[in-house]
Design goal:
268 residues, alpha/beta, TIM Barrel, 8-stranded parallel sheet, two-stranded antiparallel sheet, globular
């Protein structure tokens, strides 16, 4: 497995990762990175990572804007500023991706606030159709530079075969968070493996993170209930990956490194 690490564009966080010479790097962006000053700092970060010889770089779309999660399903007449920011931030990051030959990751949905956004529609079916339309717009704009990550919510969770068939039909490039799928599938290892195998050719990036399968716990690999010896052979070998693990110290990626060491030992 290649070493994939993640940080913000803060120089001290970046240097704490780069000394381990990862081959994949993901930037966690926030709404502050989309200001004039923030974009300048983010570009400096991208250049620093590229100068370190890393070719596979992903920009993770912001999660929040003024306290609200960036749910693509957000209804424009209920959340006008949020919808405007979603569009501005997605297109701006895609412009950076084109400039630096890198990738952008956008969540198809999240979980914590999703049901409140769905409640703005007459039904889940109507909300789902709006989400497909938004995803199509960004798919067409971003082309081979955008990928969509799975959620735990009913709107964009992998493991739902009807949803996965619709993904096939629409040709989305996917970022597969293994823990999100495991949680959405209520800890069902066999269903997780089935989903990974079914979507394999559409997946371009993985978030490798463990879970007990009950809540969003973001555990180091080997500390949850996922059987990684059965999961890893099902991954698309052409895809990139990072360890998206919660850190006790944002200047010390030891939990990410421990997860990498766990896989190396597992397959040694």
């Amino acid at each position: 497995m290649r070493l994939g690490l993640k940080s913000s564009a803060a120089p001290d966080q970046m240097e704490s990762r780069l000394k381990y010479r990862p081959s994949v790097y993901e930037f966690y962006t926030s709404e502050h990175d989309l200001t004039k000053e923030g974009l300048s700092r983010l570009e400096q970060g991208i250049r620093r990572v590229k100068d370190a010889g890393i070719r596979d770089i992903i920009l993770h779309h912001p999660v929040f804007y003024r306290g609200e999660m960036l749910e693509l399903v957000a209804k424009a007449d209920c959340h006008p500023q949020l919808v405007d920011f979603i569009d501005y931030s997605t297109r701006t990051l895609l412009d950076l991706a084109a400039k630096y030959d890198i990738q952008v990751l956008v969540h198809g949905s999240y979980e914590k606030q999703t049901h409140a956004f769905i409640a703005d529609y007459r039904s889940l079916a109507e909300a789902t159709e709006v989400l497909w339309q938004r995803l199509d717009i960004y798919r067409d704009f971003g082309k081979d530079r955008i990928m969509f990550e799975n959620s735990i919510s009913p709107l964009f969770c992998f493991g739902d075969r009807e949803l996965e068939r619709e993904i096939f039909k629409r040709g989305y490039r996917l970022a597969y968070d293994v823990s999100h799928a495991f949680i959405a599938l209520k800890g069902n290892q066999e269903a997780l493996e089935d989903s990974l195998a079914y979507l394999k050719d559409h997946i371009v990036h993985y978030h490798l993170v463990d879970s007990k399968g009950q809540e969003h716990d973001s555990l180091p690999l080997g500390q949850g209930s996922i059987d990684w010896k059965r999961v890893i052979p099902l991954l698309n070998p052409k895809a990139t990956s990072i360890y998206e693990i919660d850190l006790a110290d944002m200047l010390d990626p030891r939990e990410q490194l421990a997860s990498h060491a766990y896989l190396q030992q597992l397959f040694s």
